[in-house]
Amino acid sequence: MMAVVRKLLSPTDFRPIIPLVVKNSFSCTQFNEPFRAKDSSGLPTDLLRSYFDKGSIQEAQNLFDKMLHRDVITWTFMITGYNSCNHHNSAWTMFTQMLRHGVQPNAFTVSAVLKTCKALKALSCGKLAHGLAIKIGTQGSSIYVDNALMDMYATCCDSMGHARMVFEDIITKNDVSWTTLITGYTHRGDAYAGLRVFRQMLLEEGELSSFSFSIAVRACASIGSDILGKQVHAAVINHGFVSNLPVMNSILDMYCRCRCASEAKQLFCEMTQKDTITWNTLIAGFETVDFKESLCIFSRMMSEGFSPNCFTFTSVVAACANLAVLYCGLQLHGVIVRRGLDNNLEISNSLIDMYAKCGNIADSRKLFSGMPCTNLVSWTSMMIGYGAHGHGKEAVELFNEMVKSGIKPDKIVFVAVLSACSHAGLVDEGLRYFRLMTNYYNLAPDRDIYGCVVDLLGRAGRVEEAYQLIENMPFNPDESIWVSLLGACKAHKQPSMAKLAALRVLDMKPNKVGTYVLLSNIYAAEGNWVDFAGLRKLLRGVSNKKDAGRSWIELKDQVYSFVVGDRFVSSNEQGCEVLKLLIVHMKDVGYVPDLDCIPCP
DNA sequence: TTAGGGTTAG
């Protein structure tokens, strides 16, 4: 049999796929004598496990190196241990060494090494392990191997075909088999297929577990379907899983992602058991719909004695960014530093965004420059900050620096750099990046990218080019693209194109008051009083009035929000003074009010 | 000695 295995797994099979890291130079301070591990039920394997549990990988390797007799259990322990510490390259190395030492793997080994392949997303290695499983007769006889195989194929393949085939061949499926298949579909973005499998599982009275309910709820959340989510929630209640905290946390998350705020709050109040994840889920959920509420929940979390973690801080810092409350953000930054979380990558990224959105771009840059390590999100956040502050040149420089540092750009970073170019009038630079994206990085521009380029051309007055781009783009333009063109036509006084864009906007959003006003002004300017009157008549019938533009000022620990003619201005002395200063400053720098969109009395 | 699930950033 071993000859067959060796033939199947020749050394050349391993060489190019995964780098082999052989550790053979460890010093062993704890043990002076080599260990004899003829049977592996005793001390050495227990010690191996405890070392890996503690994360003392080197000690585990030292101990293993000292063992004179290593059997399949010992080798498998090492593979499993390396997997548990996320040292998957080392786990694979152990596996190859094991085969070279002539040790025959068993079902435990195969399922462990399949987990390694899954983590490394190494399909070729996984196929080798599959071949081995067939040769030694573990596929079809070990449910652990079958399930691990399915999981490996679901993770590493472009489609679910192989995973599905393994699943269909399993005669007695258990709860893990079902969950693995549902997870496979859901994690690759095919939540409906995952839910179909979940339904099939219920119909066939498959073994139920909290895992399968959690992933089914996740599938509903990923497609934003609270209708399906409520059905799964009902099934959770019917099958008695309401006392399972991970399941309830996932239901809470589903309601938040489906924007069912009242259902989320009700469930949260009804939950008798809560952990940090429960609070974090609610805080992150409200962070996208009600920033202020998100901060209030955070405050409650603290007062009820729960300790916030990096997930919590990332969400509340984002809430401060969206509220533009610098004072609050600064306080949080202080807490983050005091708790020693200031080197956390995700928190740092959210702080960069917060400082930029609160108007303090210098502190964003200071924080970014001081980060011990950065990722694509860090660079993108900084570029978006620069773009929003009108520093297009800095954003472009940062993009080039990022590429030099070896980070590969994605679509979002191109949105950031194109938007920065657009606001800074760097048209040719922006177009160069548009070409770079498609020609060099092979990234297909999506609707957002086209929107940026339309904006880039339009702001620079190249309205006809912008229109041609809209006409030739491979998507149906949405309302925002026509609004962008309309803004450009208005700024560069292109009435005929503006008329076309305005009519397109009204086709899609018939209640946009601003568009009616703008279009009627164009008619007035060309003396077309018939259409002007008709439009004004239509405007009176538009029920959905435009929301008044809202501004806010942060004074001490309070945020004052106000609209035109609001009583805030006259009732708040300090606020009034700030506004007076602002008006003087605006006039000093030459601001002339644009009254084009003010309706005639 | 083995397999599957829940919360973060642009």
Structure description:
This protein has 601 residues and is mainly alpha-helical. Among the domains are: 172 residues; 71 residues, no CATH class; 77 residues, Serine Threonine Protein Phosphatase 5, Tetratricopeptide repeat, CATH 1.25.40; 55 residues, no CATH class. The protein is 68% helix and 2% strand. It has a two-stranded antiparallel ribbon. The N and C termini lie far apart (93 Å). It binds one DNA strand of 10 nucleotides through helix 5, helix 7, helix 9, helix 11 and helix 13.
Q: What's the quick description here?
A:
The protein is mainly alpha-helical and 601 residues long. The chain is built from 34 helices and two strands.
N→C terminal distance: 93 Å
Low-confidence stretches: 1-41
Mean pLDDT: 86
Q: What is the strand arrangement across the widest sheet?
A: 1-2
Question: What is the rounded Rg?
Answer: 31 Å
Which bin fits the share of residues in helices? 55-70%
What structural category characterises the helix and strand content? mainly alpha
Instruction: Choose one word for the global shape.
Output: elongated
- If helices are DSSP runs of H or I spanning 4 or more residues, what is the number of helices? 34
Percent range for β-strand residues: under 5%
Largest sheet: 2 strands, antiparallel
Say how many strands there are.
2
